[in-house]
Amino acid sequence: MLITLEKILLEYDPEAKNLLPALEKISAVFGYVSRENARKVADYFSLPESKVYETASFYDLVNIKKQPNLIIKVCSGTHCAVSDSRKIVEEIENKLHIKAGDENNPRVKLEIISCLGRCGEGPVAVINDKVYERVTAGGVGEILEEWI
Questions:
Q1: For residues 140 and 77, what is the distance between their CA atoms, to the nearest angstrom?
Q2: Deepest of 101, 113, 138, 142, by most Cβ within 10 A of its Cβ?
């Protein structure tokens, strides 16, 4: 079944309170909210395009830029930080020759994120929605081999 923007929009009444849920779903289905889709969303909700972008850019669950194929997230919550999640980030940066937070690499993105709610299993890393628990700096290479 092909999911189209129009089908997603029809799931929501065109009321301002439904803008964020619609944007979240569009981002989840298409990977981001393209400029063309933002225009259609603005038309559907009878809002200025600037309001759509303001909302989309404020929330982390909505992407307004096309995302790389490989997205790595490392938890920086208290338990993970105490368990050396920073060393995991540094190891990933060294192995992939990237920097956390760099938005300009078209192939891979490394993010440091807040608590994932898995404190008992930390440090935690997520690669394209696959969760890795009790990650160590020494185990980073083996994990990355699955993806590269």
A1: 19
A2: 113
